[in-house]
Amino acid sequence: RSSYSCCYFVLPCCFFDFHGKYSRRQSRKTQYREYLDFVAQVGSVCGFHVEEDCLRIPSTKRVCLIGKTRSYPPAERALIDEQITQFINNHRPCAGATCDRRVGCNHQDHCEGGCRETGSELPQDEADTAGTTWMPGFQPRDKAERVRNCASLPREFVDDVVLRVANLLLNATPQKSGSDVQDGSTSTWNRGESLSLREVAEHLSKETLKRLKSECGGLQTLLKNNHQVFEVLNGRVHIRDWRKEKPSSGTKAEVKRRLSAGAFKTRLCWFFIHHPDGCSLPSESCPYAHGTEDLR
Protein backbone atom coordinates (compact mmCIF):
# COMPACT_ATOMS: atom_id res chain seq x y z
CA ARG A 1 0.00 0.00 0.00
CA SER A 2 3.02 2.29 0.37
CA SER A 3 3.58 2.59 -3.41
CA TYR A 4 2.65 0.91 -6.68
CA SER A 5 6.27 -0.16 -7.25
CA CYS A 6 6.46 -1.86 -3.83
CA CYS A 7 7.26 -5.59 -3.70
CA TYR A 8 7.12 -7.82 -0.64
CA PHE A 9 8.40 -11.06 0.87
CA VAL A 10 6.84 -12.59 4.00
CA LEU A 11 7.66 -15.74 5.97
CA PRO A 12 4.50 -16.51 8.00
CA CYS A 13 5.23 -18.07 11.37
CA CYS A 14 3.04 -17.20 14.38
CA PHE A 15 -0.70 -17.18 13.74
CA PHE A 16 -1.74 -13.53 14.09
CA ASP A 17 -4.37 -11.37 12.43
CA PHE A 18 -4.09 -7.57 12.19
CA HIS A 19 -5.01 -7.03 15.84
CA GLY A 20 -4.40 -10.30 17.68
CA LYS A 21 -4.35 -14.08 17.43
CA TYR A 22 -5.74 -15.49 14.22
CA SER A 23 -9.12 -17.20 14.71
CA ARG A 24 -9.59 -20.35 12.68
CA ARG A 25 -12.49 -20.37 10.22
CA GLN A 26 -12.10 -23.80 8.62
CA SER A 27 -11.58 -27.27 10.05
CA ARG A 28 -10.76 -29.13 6.85
CA LYS A 29 -7.30 -27.56 6.60
CA THR A 30 -4.39 -27.60 9.04
CA GLN A 31 -3.94 -24.42 11.04
CA TYR A 32 -0.69 -23.68 9.19
CA ARG A 33 -2.24 -24.15 5.73
CA GLU A 34 -5.25 -22.04 6.63
CA TYR A 35 -3.02 -19.24 7.90
CA LEU A 36 -0.86 -19.34 4.76
CA ASP A 37 -4.02 -19.00 2.68
CA PHE A 38 -5.10 -16.03 4.80
CA VAL A 39 -1.77 -14.24 4.30
CA ALA A 40 -1.96 -14.99 0.58
CA GLN A 41 -5.49 -13.54 0.55
CA VAL A 42 -4.17 -10.32 2.08
CA GLY A 43 -1.65 -10.07 -0.75
CA SER A 44 -4.33 -10.72 -3.37
CA VAL A 45 -6.64 -8.09 -1.89
CA CYS A 46 -3.76 -5.63 -2.01
CA GLY A 47 -3.51 -6.26 -5.74
CA PHE A 48 -0.52 -8.61 -6.02
CA HIS A 49 0.06 -11.78 -7.97
CA VAL A 50 1.01 -13.85 -4.92
CA GLU A 51 3.65 -16.54 -5.40
CA GLU A 52 4.48 -19.29 -2.90
CA ASP A 53 7.87 -20.89 -2.34
CA CYS A 54 9.59 -23.12 0.21
CA LEU A 55 12.86 -22.02 1.79
CA ARG A 56 15.81 -24.29 2.51
CA ILE A 57 15.99 -23.52 6.22
CA PRO A 58 15.91 -25.84 9.28
CA SER A 59 12.38 -24.94 10.31
CA THR A 60 8.90 -26.41 10.06
CA LYS A 61 7.59 -22.95 9.10
CA ARG A 62 9.50 -22.42 5.86
CA VAL A 63 6.80 -21.58 3.30
CA CYS A 64 7.16 -17.99 2.12
CA LEU A 65 4.85 -15.76 0.08
CA ILE A 66 6.14 -13.24 -2.47
CA GLY A 67 4.47 -10.34 -4.24
CA LYS A 68 6.55 -9.07 -7.18
CA THR A 69 3.96 -7.93 -9.69
CA ARG A 70 0.60 -6.15 -9.49
CA SER A 71 -2.69 -7.52 -10.77
CA TYR A 72 -4.06 -4.10 -11.80
CA PRO A 73 -2.86 -1.09 -13.81
CA PRO A 74 -1.63 2.07 -12.03
CA ALA A 75 -4.81 3.94 -12.99
CA GLU A 76 -6.89 1.69 -10.71
CA ARG A 77 -4.78 2.32 -7.62
CA ALA A 78 -7.42 4.48 -5.88
CA LEU A 79 -10.06 1.78 -6.41
CA ILE A 80 -7.82 -0.93 -4.99
CA ASP A 81 -6.99 1.31 -2.02
CA GLU A 82 -10.70 1.48 -1.18
CA GLN A 83 -10.85 -2.29 -1.44
CA ILE A 84 -7.92 -2.61 0.98
CA THR A 85 -9.56 -0.19 3.42
CA GLN A 86 -12.77 -2.23 3.38
CA PHE A 87 -10.83 -5.45 3.94
CA ILE A 88 -9.04 -3.96 6.97
CA ASN A 89 -12.29 -2.65 8.43
CA ASN A 90 -13.89 -6.07 8.06
CA HIS A 91 -11.07 -7.57 10.14
CA ARG A 92 -11.11 -4.97 12.90
CA PRO A 93 -12.01 -6.23 16.39
CA CYS A 94 -15.42 -5.13 17.64
CA ALA A 95 -15.67 -2.27 20.11
CA GLY A 96 -18.40 -4.10 22.05
CA ALA A 97 -17.83 -6.20 25.15
CA THR A 98 -18.59 -9.45 23.33
CA CYS A 99 -15.25 -9.51 21.50
CA ASP A 100 -11.76 -9.56 23.00
CA ARG A 101 -9.33 -7.12 21.38
CA ARG A 102 -6.41 -9.35 22.33
CA VAL A 103 -7.87 -12.29 20.41
CA GLY A 104 -9.53 -10.33 17.62
CA CYS A 105 -12.42 -11.38 15.42
CA ASN A 106 -13.70 -10.93 11.91
CA HIS A 107 -15.78 -7.79 12.07
CA GLN A 108 -17.98 -8.83 9.19
CA ASP A 109 -18.50 -12.45 10.27
CA HIS A 110 -19.19 -11.79 13.93
CA CYS A 111 -21.05 -8.50 13.89
CA GLU A 112 -22.91 -8.70 10.57
CA GLY A 113 -23.37 -4.94 10.59
CA GLY A 114 -24.82 -4.90 14.11
CA CYS A 115 -22.12 -2.67 15.53
CA ARG A 116 -23.41 0.37 13.66
CA GLU A 117 -26.91 -0.15 15.00
CA THR A 118 -25.75 -0.47 18.60
CA GLY A 119 -23.58 2.64 18.39
CA SER A 120 -20.22 0.83 18.61
CA GLU A 121 -18.32 3.32 16.49
CA LEU A 122 -14.61 3.97 16.71
CA PRO A 123 -13.38 5.77 19.85
CA GLN A 124 -12.96 9.51 19.35
CA ASP A 125 -9.17 9.43 19.38
CA GLU A 126 -9.15 6.67 16.75
CA ALA A 127 -11.84 8.36 14.68
CA ASP A 128 -9.77 11.55 14.53
CA THR A 129 -6.83 9.68 13.04
CA ALA A 130 -8.82 7.31 10.81
CA GLY A 131 -8.34 9.55 7.81
CA THR A 132 -4.57 9.82 8.17
CA THR A 133 -3.52 6.33 9.27
CA TRP A 134 -4.01 2.96 7.61
CA MET A 135 -5.02 1.15 10.78
CA PRO A 136 -6.14 3.27 13.77
CA GLY A 137 -5.31 1.81 17.17
CA PHE A 138 -2.55 -0.48 15.87
CA GLN A 139 0.27 -0.91 18.40
CA PRO A 140 3.48 -2.41 16.96
CA ARG A 141 5.92 -4.30 19.14
CA ASP A 142 8.94 -2.47 20.50
CA LYS A 143 12.06 -2.61 18.34
CA ALA A 144 14.01 -4.16 21.20
CA GLU A 145 11.95 -6.97 22.70
CA ARG A 146 12.64 -7.60 26.37
CA VAL A 147 14.01 -11.02 27.26
CA ARG A 148 11.50 -12.74 29.55
CA ASN A 149 12.94 -16.23 30.10
CA CYS A 150 14.27 -15.52 33.62
CA ALA A 151 17.76 -15.03 32.17
CA SER A 152 17.72 -11.27 32.83
CA LEU A 153 16.72 -11.57 36.50
CA PRO A 154 19.34 -10.35 39.02
CA ARG A 155 21.80 -13.08 40.00
CA GLU A 156 21.19 -12.41 43.70
CA PHE A 157 17.45 -12.96 43.28
CA VAL A 158 17.94 -16.21 41.34
CA ASP A 159 20.48 -17.55 43.84
CA ASP A 160 18.11 -16.79 46.71
CA VAL A 161 15.19 -18.65 45.06
CA VAL A 162 17.42 -21.62 44.20
CA LEU A 163 18.67 -21.87 47.79
CA ARG A 164 15.16 -21.58 49.23
CA VAL A 165 13.74 -24.29 46.96
CA ALA A 166 16.72 -26.60 47.52
CA ASN A 167 16.46 -26.29 51.32
CA LEU A 168 12.72 -26.97 51.04
CA LEU A 169 13.37 -30.21 49.18
CA LEU A 170 16.26 -31.26 51.40
CA ASN A 171 14.31 -30.72 54.63
CA ALA A 172 11.18 -32.45 53.38
CA THR A 173 12.49 -36.00 54.00
CA PRO A 174 14.74 -37.78 56.53
CA GLN A 175 18.37 -37.94 55.48
CA LYS A 176 18.40 -41.76 55.64
CA SER A 177 16.15 -41.94 52.57
CA GLY A 178 19.11 -40.84 50.48
CA SER A 179 21.26 -43.83 51.42
CA ASP A 180 22.78 -45.81 48.56
CA VAL A 181 25.04 -48.80 48.45
CA GLN A 182 27.96 -48.25 46.12
CA ASP A 183 31.05 -50.46 45.74
CA GLY A 184 29.99 -52.53 48.72
CA SER A 185 29.89 -49.59 51.13
CA THR A 186 26.97 -47.49 52.33
CA SER A 187 27.12 -43.92 51.06
CA THR A 188 24.66 -41.50 52.65
CA TRP A 189 23.76 -38.46 50.57
CA ASN A 190 20.53 -36.56 51.10
CA ARG A 191 18.65 -36.42 47.80
CA GLY A 192 15.69 -34.70 49.42
CA GLU A 193 12.04 -35.10 48.50
CA SER A 194 10.23 -34.32 45.26
CA LEU A 195 7.48 -31.71 45.40
CA SER A 196 5.06 -30.40 42.82
CA LEU A 197 5.57 -26.92 41.40
CA ARG A 198 2.42 -25.83 43.20
CA GLU A 199 3.74 -27.05 46.56
CA VAL A 200 7.03 -25.25 45.98
CA ALA A 201 5.22 -22.04 45.02
CA GLU A 202 3.19 -22.15 48.24
CA HIS A 203 6.41 -21.76 50.25
CA LEU A 204 7.62 -18.70 48.34
CA SER A 205 6.70 -15.13 49.22
CA LYS A 206 4.08 -13.19 47.26
CA GLU A 207 6.73 -10.70 46.12
CA THR A 208 8.89 -13.51 44.71
CA LEU A 209 5.97 -15.14 42.89
CA LYS A 210 4.84 -11.80 41.47
CA ARG A 211 8.31 -11.19 40.08
CA LEU A 212 8.48 -14.67 38.55
CA LYS A 213 4.99 -14.36 37.08
CA SER A 214 6.17 -11.50 34.87
CA GLU A 215 8.63 -13.89 33.20
CA CYS A 216 7.69 -16.48 30.57
CA GLY A 217 7.39 -19.85 32.30
CA GLY A 218 7.76 -18.35 35.76
CA LEU A 219 9.06 -20.62 38.51
CA GLN A 220 9.39 -23.67 36.26
CA THR A 221 11.63 -21.82 33.80
CA LEU A 222 13.87 -20.53 36.58
CA LEU A 223 14.30 -24.04 38.02
CA LYS A 224 14.98 -25.56 34.62
CA ASN A 225 17.56 -22.85 33.92
CA ASN A 226 19.38 -24.04 37.03
CA HIS A 227 19.72 -27.60 35.73
CA GLN A 228 22.86 -28.14 37.82
CA VAL A 229 20.72 -28.20 40.98
CA PHE A 230 17.21 -29.21 39.89
CA GLU A 231 15.42 -31.66 37.66
CA VAL A 232 11.81 -30.87 36.73
CA LEU A 233 9.88 -33.93 35.52
CA ASN A 234 6.13 -34.14 34.96
CA GLY A 235 5.47 -31.04 37.03
CA ARG A 236 7.54 -32.21 40.01
CA VAL A 237 10.82 -30.74 41.24
CA HIS A 238 13.71 -33.00 42.26
CA ILE A 239 17.23 -32.41 43.51
CA ARG A 240 19.50 -33.56 40.69
CA ASP A 241 21.60 -36.58 41.61
CA TRP A 242 24.69 -36.42 39.40
CA ARG A 243 25.59 -40.03 40.25
CA LYS A 244 22.67 -41.13 38.06
CA GLU A 245 23.63 -38.96 35.11
CA LYS A 246 24.73 -40.98 32.07
CA PRO A 247 26.42 -39.55 28.96
CA SER A 248 23.85 -41.20 26.70
CA SER A 249 20.79 -39.87 28.56
CA GLY A 250 18.89 -36.72 27.66
CA THR A 251 18.77 -34.85 24.38
CA LYS A 252 21.77 -34.35 22.13
CA ALA A 253 21.96 -30.71 23.17
CA GLU A 254 22.12 -31.65 26.86
CA VAL A 255 24.79 -34.28 26.25
CA LYS A 256 26.85 -31.84 24.19
CA ARG A 257 26.56 -29.20 26.91
CA ARG A 258 27.41 -31.68 29.64
CA LEU A 259 30.46 -33.16 27.94
CA SER A 260 31.82 -30.02 26.32
CA ALA A 261 35.46 -29.72 27.32
CA GLY A 262 35.35 -25.95 26.95
CA ALA A 263 32.64 -25.66 29.61
CA PHE A 264 34.09 -28.24 32.02
CA LYS A 265 34.75 -26.83 35.52
CA THR A 266 34.18 -23.21 34.51
CA ARG A 267 31.61 -22.75 37.32
CA LEU A 268 31.60 -23.61 41.00
CA CYS A 269 29.70 -26.69 42.11
CA TRP A 270 26.52 -25.64 43.91
CA PHE A 271 26.40 -28.85 45.93
CA PHE A 272 30.02 -28.48 47.08
CA ILE A 273 29.15 -25.03 48.49
CA HIS A 274 25.55 -25.38 49.73
CA HIS A 275 24.56 -29.04 50.16
CA PRO A 276 24.93 -30.29 53.77
CA ASP A 277 26.58 -33.49 52.49
CA GLY A 278 28.64 -31.75 49.85
CA CYS A 279 28.78 -32.99 46.26
CA SER A 280 27.77 -36.58 45.54
CA LEU A 281 30.64 -36.91 43.06
CA PRO A 282 34.39 -36.77 43.65
CA SER A 283 36.16 -33.71 42.30
CA GLU A 284 37.66 -35.49 39.29
CA SER A 285 34.21 -36.74 38.16
CA CYS A 286 32.16 -33.61 38.80
CA PRO A 287 31.73 -31.30 35.78
CA TYR A 288 31.81 -28.32 38.15
CA ALA A 289 34.67 -26.95 40.22
CA HIS A 290 35.06 -27.99 43.86
CA GLY A 291 36.49 -24.73 45.12
CA THR A 292 38.09 -21.73 43.42
CA GLU A 293 41.42 -23.53 43.00
CA ASP A 294 39.63 -26.10 40.78
CA LEU A 295 38.22 -23.48 38.40
CA ARG A 296 39.40 -23.32 34.80
Automatic annotation (TrEMBL):
Keywords, sorted A to Z: Cytoplasm, Metal-binding, Methyltransferase, S-adenosyl-L-methionine, Transferase, tRNA processing, Zinc, Zinc-finger
Enzyme class: transferase
GO biological process, one term: tRNA methylation
Domain of life: Eukaryota
Every C3H1-type domain range: 263-293
PROSITE patterns: ZF_C3H1
Signal peptide: none
E.C. numbers: 2.1.1.211
Zinc finger (C3H1-type): 263-293
GO terms, molecular function: tRNA(Ser) (uridine(44)-2'-O-)-methyltransferase activity; zinc ion binding
Tagged with keyword Lyase: no
Subcellular localization: Cytoplasm
Cellular component terms (Gene Ontology): cytoplasm
Catalytic activity field: uridine(44) in tRNA(Ser) + S-adenosyl-L-methionine = 2'-O-methyluridine(44) in tRNA(Ser) + S-adenosyl-L-homocysteine + H(+)
Function as written in the Swiss-Prot or TrEMBL entry: Adenosyl-L-methionine (AdoMet)-dependent tRNA (uracil-O(2)-)-methyltransferase.
PANTHER family xref list: TRNA (URACIL-O(2)-)-METHYLTRANSFERASE-RELATED
Family per record: Belongs to the TRM44 family.
Entry protein name: tRNA (uracil-O(2)-)-methyltransferase
Organism from which the protein derives: Pitta sordida (Hooded pitta)
